[in-house]
Amino acid sequence: MTDHIIGHLTESYSGPALIIRLSSLVGSDPENTGVRQYFINYLKSNTLNTSLLQKIDIPPNPENCQWREDADTKFAQRLSQAERNLQECKASQNGSKIQSAIVSIARLHSHVGGNHNAAMTRLSSLRELVIDPAEKVSLMLAIVTENVHAGQLHKVQPEIMRFVASNEADHYPTQVAVLKAILALSHINQLHFQEAAKILLSIDQLPDYPELFTVADLTRLTVLSAMASFDRARLRKDLMNNPKFIEMPDICRLSCDALSEFCSLKFSQALEHVGQMISNYLFADPYLTENVRIAAIDSIRRSAMLSYVSPYESICMNKMAKVFNLTVPQTERDLVYLIRQGLLPAKVDTQHCILWANKSKQRENTFLLCEKVMSRFIATSSAMSLRVAQLQYDVIVGGKKSNSDERLTGQFNIQ
């Protein structure tokens, strides 16, 4: 199983994204020495990231200590050579070569040394040098990507929102799709699931961007965010009937099953599949931290509770607890939360373990429903009466028609 996961990660991601996810994999199972050793070997073969190796090499291995010393020396030499190359480009006053030299230094910091803040500083210095609009967009995407790698998702929102709202965004649909997905990740990180779901659903085609995420990642996060914030009617409309999710490959089968079961009121199975989706596929997702996972599952469960209690005047909390695989106190805690948030007009009878619906609120809802039905009935009856009058008295509404278009006259009697 571990080899399969590592193989999937190495095939799907590249650069710092792969390193970050392997690091998350090590953190999710600290006792798995095989995963840790694989990660150490990968760092030693592909990077000179001594700070990250030091964090995971516990207890320290003497061989790794010697490697860190050699790696620091090699990185200093490569960085010095890159700086000298930049000075030569500046002396020649060749703008394109200067840009290439700065990008090389930033990539050295990011991909080799693991210092994303230093990479951002280098890339930001290019903002005044880049003139071509396409290169500006690519530069902005590179800076935003480094922000994400550095764990600073909250800093990317203003710049992305300004660009997406600008007129230039229409000329770069691929980059805009990636930036929107990053914006959605920032909302998920802040527990704003509804905003994240809206943004992801607004993307015509979910992008595959190995530097950060895959299409399957975004699909699962879309389903997770939507289930945590949308009601069943909206889930059916925006996801169940959406071609982007109907024709998904088998890799997202758990997401589709969870969504389908939630809409079919099979809440226990839906929550079980959500848990499996997170534990099997999203456990190494660096943007889905522990508090985000807990908040998402809690939101989905509470949304399911609202759908479960809506048809009834009273609910036995013992039966409800079995449906959601919870204890009665846990069920009561969630119900009290929904009542305090104003989402559930009801009251809890702790002594008898019963949830009583608010009858006054029910009468108000029933009256409003009856009012709508009667309004439709009156409108339909009025239209029918007018039609009967037109037929009975041969009334023609509209401009004069030619003889060939005139309808036949006749009598219409109501029995």
UniProtKB/TrEMBL annotation:
Keywords: Cytoplasm, Nucleus, Signalosome. Belongs to the CSN1 family. GO terms for cellular component: COP9 signalosome; cytoplasm. The keyword Nucleus applies. It comes from Spongospora subterranea. This is PCI domain-containing protein. InterPro entries: PCI_dom, Rpn7/CSN1, Rpn7_N, WH_DNA-bd_sf. Residues 291-377 form the PCI domain. The keyword Cytoplasm applies.
